[in-house]
């Protein structure tokens, strides 16, 4: 059964959260602890499958936006992973 774009986007977002929670992010050095904690809290709160997880994610997203933080390195890891999986 083909995967919808929405399912693919959710899977990619979950993968990004997992990467953010696990690796040290050079681009987030000033806010690394907050980003890692927020990603971990989102995943532990049931991820996007629960209301609590969605609220936690929204809070983390707002925090990182206000700090002008960009998870560039973990996004690069995710992009490379998705590219490999696509082939």
State the end-to-end distance.
18 Å
- Order of helical and strand elements: HHHH
- The figure for the number of domains is 1
Proportion of β residues?
under 5%
**Count of individual helical segments:** 4
Radius of gyration: 13 Å
The class by helix and strand makeup works out as mainly alpha
Helix content: over 70%
From the spread of the alpha carbons, the general shape counts as globular
- List segments where confidence is low: pLDDT < 50 over at least 5 consecutive residues: none
**Residue-averaged pLDDT:** 76
Largest sheet: none
Multimerization state: single chain
Q: How many runs of DSSP E, i.e. beta strands? A: 0
Features:
single chain, 87 residues, mainly alpha, 4 helices, 71% helix
Characterize the structure shown.
It is a single chain. By secondary structure, the chain is mostly helical. The chain has one domain. The chain has 4 helices and no strands. The protein has helices at residues 5-22, 32-44, 51-66, 72-86. Helix 1 packs across helix 2, helix 1 crosses helix 4 (72-86) and helix 2 packs antiparallel against helix 3. The mean pLDDT is 76.
Please outline the helices and strands.
Layout: H1 5-22, H2 32-44, H3 51-66, H4 72-86
Helix pairs in contact: 1-2, 1-4, 2-3
